[in-house]
Known about the structure:
Elements: H1 2-16, E1 19-29, H2 34-45, E2 50-56, E3 61-66, H3 74-83, E4 87-102, E5 107-110, E6 113-117, E7 123-133, H4 141-150, E8 164-169
Parallel strand pairs: 6-8
Antiparallel strand pairs: 1-3, 1-4, 2-3, 4-7, 5-6, 7-8
Amino acid sequence: MKKLFILTVILFVSVAVNAQILKAELTATGLTCSMCSKATYKQLISIEAIEKVEPDLNNTAFLLYFKNGSAVNIGDVKKKVEDAGFSVGELVVVFNFKDQQAANNGTFTLDNNTYTFMDTKAGTLSGEVKVKILDKGFIVDKEYKQIEKTAKQYPTYASNNKNVYHIKVL
């Protein structure tokens, strides 16, 4: 029994270290002026894991760079945008994968967050890979409702579990 436990821990650790979040592209909704962008910028830069934020005022977007080796919780990004009085219209995250297996309903854990692949071809991911977060609050409501209708094959989708995110490889 002890050997089984140790083997399980080793496997979990090996899965958990196959990825790191490098940066993210965030599109915010509801921004109407430079003061709105500034309020959102201040909220985002206050996240401990964020090294730098580059605003794009023309597209109401922000490019977020994460500190190397830092634990990233993308839920914090959503919360900070909402704290500024706005919402996330889209969040595309750039992972640095090292031989990560990807397939529909396949999962991996990183920084106490579980990521589930949706609408993704089976294969091995290595290097920088862009993925889109598909959960409620990370995409516009219209897109979420469309995905929710067709997501019956993904049992955890629409469950609103904290620290469980659904991603699509772009």
